[in-house]
Specification:
The structure holds 2 protein chains of 2 kinds.
Chain A lengths: L1 E7 L2 E7 L5 H8 L18 E4 L2 E4 L12 E3 L13 H8 L9 H14 L5 H7 L11 H10 L11
Parallel strand pairs in A: 1-5
Antiparallel strand pairs in A: 1-2, 3-4, 3-5
Helix pairs in contact in A: 2-5
Chain B lengths: L4 E3 L4 H7 L5 E4 L5 H6 L7 E4 L9 E3 L5 E4 L4 H7 L5 H7 L5 H4 L4 H7 L6 H8 L2 E4 L3 E3 H4 L14 E6 L4 E8 L6 E10 L2 E7 L7 E2 L1 H9 L24 H18 L1
Parallel strand pairs in B: 1-3, 2-3
Antiparallel strand pairs in B: 4-5, 5-8, 6-7, 6-8, 9-10, 10-11, 11-12
The chains are: A alpha+beta, B alpha+beta.
Chain lengths: ~160, ~260
């Protein structure tokens, strides 16, 4: 076992992990931050997306030891300080950007990474950025709308379907 | 996954030392190796993570104008930092996998793995790159030795990739939509002394140069110069996504598209 130390949602944490312990398992099993989901476990679906040093990564395809010393952000740290939903989360609610909700933590984290890189993405840019996030309920349309709204842009540019 | 030890050295020298033991394997960004470990298709005793080695990260220029990319540089970094100097390479890097994969996957990892459908082997071979390891420099023409096979020895680490920058270049990828690997990808690069054409995704022997097209394009750099040229379906990959004849056909189509986009 190896000791790892990192900052998760602004809080210093540490734990003993095996070499093969994935970052997502450290977050979920050791830290009990179960908002980050494991969907496919093969780095395709994106339900496990978190930010490591500000960059979106699939936490099922990174070892916990590789995040030693890093700043990690998960869905649990996304809400505003007063507990209210942040602008992206609120937009997902307002635009019905989720149905079962399983993919939503990864969708919100990917959306946050996109808007940091590109504050006013086009519909095409949003869809391309979400290539690694799979949703089996919504058909993506309302997720795209929600991200468009969260960026402060007019969602009416997205044709109704 | 089977259990293994993992080390995360901070220097190339420490990484090379750590790789000396039996059954030790280098870990780049892990975007292929970790799924492979999960499937129990590999069982190293020890992994040596290269992600903490600062001297293997980043993009810079050599005195002769080549682009030098550290072996542990992520696709996302190449997509950003190579954009001004080698746009075709940056565009290729920007379309590997998806954004989260590009934030972890590395050029050295991709070249060491040499997946027959990966994008970077086409860029390296098409650019006439030099693969620099902890012990030597390997020209791309000698480096790729077949599907998942390279000139690398056990314990050898790709520390840098040096890519001559062509006058113009373009990469056309016919995407396999589920995996986002290339069903067929063609990298065309025009240098003062000739044109190089590298094809990925098509051959059972991995990335290869289409020398017939290179000769035609070196004489006349236009899609018209490729009229009537084609590759044989013999030895092309055949799977549920496409027959060998389909892939052979795509090689010519994607080469023409790449020339037209140059």
């Amino acid at each position: 076992m190896t000791k790892v130390t990192m900052t998760v949602n602004g809080k210093a944490v540490s734990g003993d992990v095996e070499g093969r312990t994935l970052l997502v398992d450290f977050l979920r099993s050791d830290l009990r931050l179960t908002g980050t989901h494991v969907g496919c476990d093969t780095s395709q679906c994106g339900a496990c997306v978190v930010h490591v040093d500000g960059k979106a990564v699939k936490s099922c395809t990174m070892f916990a030891i590789e995040a030693d010393g890093a700043e990690v952000a998960t869905i649990e740290g996304q809400a505003n300080a007063d507990g209210s939903l942040n602008v992206i989360q609120q937009a997902f609610q307002d635009h019905h950007g989720l149905q079962c909700g399983f993919c939503t933590p990864g969708m919100v984290m990917s959306a946050a990474a996109l808007l940091k890189e590109n504050p006013t993405p086009s519909e095409a840019e949003i869809r391309e950025y979400l290539e690694g996030n799979i949703c089996r309920c919504t058909g993506y349309h309302n997720i795209v709308k929600a991200i468009m709204a969260a960026s402060g842009q007019d969602v009416e540019v997205i044709a109704a379907e | 996954m089977y259990a293994f030890e993992i080390e995360r050295p901070a220097t190339i020298a420490d990484a090379v030392a750590a790789l000396q033991g039996d059954d030790a394997q280098a870990l780049g960004g892990g975007q292929t190796l970790i799924p492979t470990l999960k499937a129990r298709l590999a069982m190293p005793a020890k992994l040596v993570s290269l992600s903490g080695i600062g001297e293997m990260q980043g993009v810079c220029h050599s005195d002769d104008g080549a682009l030098c990319i550290g072996g542990a540089t992520t696709h996302a970094t190449v997509a950003t930092e190579a954009a001004a100097h080698y746009p075709a390479l940056a565009a290729l890097a920007a379309h590997i996998g998806d954004p989260a994969v590009r934030n972890r996957g590395t050029i050295g990892g991709s070249l060491a793995n040499n997946d027959p459908s990966a994008c970077y082997p086409a860029a390296a071979l098409g650019s006439g790159a030099v693969i620099i390891t902890n012990t030597r420099s390997i020209p791309a023409d000698d480096y790729f030795q077949g599907m998942f096979t390279t000139a690398l020895e056990d314990g050898e680490v790709i520390t840098e990739v040096r890519l001559p920058v062509p006058e113009t270049a373009n990469y056309q990828k016919f995407v396999q939509p589920a995996s986002r690997f290339a069903l067929v990808g063609v990298f065309v690069a025009k240098f003062p002394d000739g044109v190089r054409v590298a094809v990925t995704g098509a051959s059972e022997n991995g990335v290869f140069r289409w020398t017939e097209a290179e000769a035609a394009l070196s004489a006349d750099f236009s899609a018209g110069a490729l009229a009537g040229l084609g590759v044989s379906p013999d030895g092309m990959i055949a799977d549920l996504h496409g027959s060998s004849a389909y892939r052979a056909h795509l090689v010519a189509v994607m080469t023409k598209r790449a020339v037209n986009a140059c």
